[in-house]
Amino acid sequence: MIELLEESFRAAARQRGGGRARAVHVCKLAHEPYPDPSTALVFLLFEDDAPHPSAVAKVARSAAADAAVRAEWRGVELARGRLPEPTRRAVPENWAAGEINGRAYGLWSAQPGQGDWHHTFRPAEARRAGHRIRAALEWAARMAAATADGVITAHEWLGPWPAVRSGLAAGGLDAAVLASLDRRLPAVWETSWPAALVHGDFFAGNLLFEHDRISAVLDWGGAEARGPAFLDALNYELAFALHVLGTRRRMDAGTLRAFASLPPFRQERHIHSLAGGVPTQPGADARLVAVAGRLWREVQAGPARRAAAQVWMQLAACEAGIAPAA
User: Fold this and answer.
1) Residue 35 has pLDDT above 70, yes or no
2) N or C: which end of the chain has fewer CB within 10 A?
């Protein structure tokens, strides 16, 4: 496998006019023993003893991971085709794709920057990351503005509510949460929202920063050409609550409000409340549209995403005003 990745990198370098790398060092990333087979093996490729990687490779280990690797390739292609400079600079370049040992692999340019997982912080700590949260929201807003594409309803985005409801019920969503969604979502399911390209999993864990600037936006496997333009900014906020639910299994209303009240998120809602025309920022009911939409995508992904779906179900319960089970 390592030799095939090295040769793939050298071929990509030749195609880009970079000549033949004198040496390529491949470093396996992430933690052993990779308990979830739906994830791909991740490798960093270093050229000529450089201190920073030149490329990132992902090699699937299952059919579900095959689909994820190929979806990421399509998502990067979509984003780089739609975004103007300089926003596009944060998106990796597609370098090579194919199969290794019968499984899909992809090779992308390595982006500069450092991770900053502030979505794992408690509310008081997260305030100190406000400058980076604001930079992320500003990047998402630039992407939405650059790829604006009319308006979209939840019906157009996800399908008719009865069909989505049936899918959520089959996926195991609690009956009380479904009943709450039934009372609230049909009234906003046909509301028109501005449409744009959406990343689909926009949160701190998929970003790299250089000081207070976004230098990389990674993992485009959930990208959609058209979705409600508020989705990425809202997902960034919801990631804080998702982390709490995923690690401590409980979320109280006060903590949820504390995350929503962080200054960058308050400012984001204020800016959008001043806009005219069609709504651009979701209220409480439309937040449920976003949560239901992401949960629907997780349920559609099948057993490989069961754990993620369970956490989104807990968040749906919080947003519906129902205390989720521990």
Assistant:
1) no
2) C
Domain count, the chain: 2
Q: How much is the pLDDT for 206? A: 97
Residues 96 and 181 occupy one common structural domain:
no
Structural domain containing residue 160? 118-319
Q: Where are the alpha helices (DSSP H) in the chain?
A: 2-15, 63-82, 123-126, 130-146, 154-158, 161-170, 175-184, 231-248, 253-260, 263-273, 284-300, 306-319
- Residue-wise pLDDT tens digits, 91-146: 999 999 999 999 999 999 999 999 999 999 999 999 999 999 999 999 999 999 99
Is residue 166 included in any domain, yes or no?
Answer: yes
148 and 175 assigned to the same domain: yes
Residue 176 φ/ψ, nearest 5 degrees = -65, -40
Cβ–Cβ < 8 Å for 157, 226: yes
* Same structural domain, 133 and 281: yes
pLDDT at 21 over 70: no
Does 234 share its domain with 156? Answer: yes
Q: Which of 96, 178, 192 is nearest to 150 (CA)?
A: 192
- Contact yes or no for 116/209 (Cβ under 8 A): yes
**Which letter does DSSP use for residue 114 in this model?**
B
Structure token pair of residue 115: 């991770």
CA quadruple 218, 224, 229, 235: dihedral sign: negative
Residue finishing a domain among 65, 87, 109: 109
The candidate with the shortest Cα–Cα distance to 235, out of 261, 204, 263, 256, is 204
Among 69, 91, 109, which residue terminates a domain?
A: 109
Answer whether 236's CB lies under 8 Å from 259's CB.
no
Q: Which two tokens stand for residue 263?
A: 């200054």
Q: Which amino acid belongs to residue 191?
A: T
Indicate if 178 and 281 belong to the same structural domain.
yes
Summarised one tens digit per residue, pLDDT across range 163-216 is 999 999 999 999 999 999 999 999 999 999 999 999 999 999 999 999 889 999
- 326 within some domain: no
Verify that 174 and 272 share a domain, yes or no: yes
